[in-house]
Structure formats: structure tokens, C-alpha cells
Amino acid sequence: MLRGRLGLDTARIPHADRHGLIWLDRGRLEVDAGCLRFLCAGGGMMEAGDYQIPHQTVSAVLLGPGSSVTHDALRLLARHGCVLCAIGEGGVRLYTAPPLAPDNSALARRQVTAWSDPQERMAVARRMYALRFDEVVRTRDIETLRGMEGARIRRAYTLAAERHGVTWQGRRYDRTNPDAADLPNQALNHAATVLQAAAAVAVTATGTVPQLGFVHEDSGQSFVLDIADLRRHDVMLDIAFGAVREADQGRALVDRIVRRRATMIFRRKAVIPGMIDAIKTVLGASGEEGQ
Question: Across the strands, what pairs with 83?
Fold first, then answer.
């Protein structure tokens, strides 16, 4: 996604192969031509100068007093999994705000309890399916449930394409060459990304654990992917196929249309608040827990 912008098309390096920490102070952290730069005024731990920061090869940037950071720099660091910490002089204080979370751990504890019990874990997965497709299923096998889900979502793709007047030839995506996909598949890739971002906000806001998914398993964002999937059959398809229809009329690049449509649809349909309510529902929480 967004190839050529902010260096996002460059490969990421696993944390195990990174070099640790970089300390910066008295300057401005920004992005220029896809590279992370620190314009240091001097007078602290660093000499004045224009430094290029190897964000792909470090685990964390420690930003000391007298410094500022741009939105583009935050986006680039997040994309490459590099943590930014605002620290006091010499690292004696940590000021970076933690992720917003509720005042209690009820939802997180409920999630862990359900995830660690095979029967309850399957019950949560079935509740997710019921929320998505308005259908109660009796199966207790996760692979069977995934097969049912796949068939339903493929049908949803076809119906959404017909509704928006878009030619649909099936879901095809080559991760090594995303630009090779046809326009509907490119739009779906972009729409999946923005929907996952909305789900990440909802998971963060509820203080639940991103890694502990009930349908997804291996990803470090498994629960985020679970929650994003709750709106894959309606919100994501509306964003993607509507964007294709606009792009066919030559209005703008499809990724820009996807982001614009997502902004509009997220607000109009209260997507993130709805995801927060869905998290409480699938975990079997009452209306007051996790506030």
C-alpha cells in the first residue's frame, strides 16, 4: 500500500536483527523524501546537525527534551515497528503516554479467560459469526466455521460488486506484487487496511489484548483482525467497490478514494463505536464492563 510514499515500500527488518536504541534531543524529528531525519540544534547530548535515522534497523527512538516530532515521522515509525519514547534528560523519566485504556481490566480478563478455554473460545468465534451473518451456527470445529465464513464472504463480494456496478472476477492478491492486482482487488487491499486500523482503535480503547484472537491465531494482531472481520462483509465492501466505481470515472487514484470514503463511512455508520460494542458482545460482557 502507498508504494513510494514515506519509504513504506521498503522491507521491514525483524526486531531480533535490530540494533537497539537511538537517543535524540533538542531537535525536530521529521520525514524528508521517505527518510527519517533529525534536525538537531545542539547544546545537549548531540552536536548540531542534520542526521538521517535508520528507523528500520533500531527497536526504539528515545526523544529527549527540547524536541518535536511530525505526524509523518510517527506514521513512518509505526509502519516499521519502531517505538518512539519521549524521555527526560538522560533517560531519567518516561513521558510517552501509554495507550488509552478503560479504568478496569474486566474485558481483558474476560478475553483471556475465554481464549484459554477451548469450549468458550469456540463459543466466542460462533458469536462473531452470528454478528457478521445474522446466523447462529452449531458447529464446534473452527475449521468448519472458517469454511462457512469463506463461502459467505465470497458471496458477499459478488453481491457488492453487482450493487455497485463493478466487474468482479474473484479475489486475487499477490503479496509480492500488490500492484499487479486488478482495480477491485487493489481497492479491497486498501479497504482492508483502513478497516484494520479502525479495529485497532477499538481494541486499544477497550484495553483488550491484540494478540489473543478467536478466529485468527498466528498474527500479533489476531484479535484486531477478528474485529475487523465483523465489518468485512458490509463496510469494507462498500468502501472498496464504491471506490472502484469512482475511480473508473477518472476522479482520483483508488487508494485516495478508499481513504476518503472510509472517513465518510466510518463517521456516518459509527464504525469504531460499533466495534467497541461488538467486542463487549462477543466476549459476553455486560453494558457496563470495559467502560
Answer: 60
Q: Which long-range contacts (CB under 8 A, 24 or more apart) does 257-265 make?
A: 257/187, 258/187, 258/190, 258/191, 258/194, 259/190, 259/194, 262/191, 262/194, 262/195, 262/198, 265/235, 265/238, 265/239
Per-residue cell: 131: 454478528
Specify the residue for cell string 531525519: 37
Structural domains of the chain, with CATH: 15-91 (3.100.10.20), 106-282 (1.20.120.920)
Measured between its terminal Cα atoms, the distance across the chain in Å is 34
Model pTM?
Answer: 0.73
When pLDDT is cut at 50, 70 and 90, the band that residue 51 belongs to is very high
Report how far Cα 157 is from the mean position of its chain's Cα atoms: 22
Number of Cα atoms under 13 Å in the Cβ half of residue 57: 5
| Rg of the Cα atoms in the chain | 22
Output the nine-digit C-alpha cell for 223: 484479535
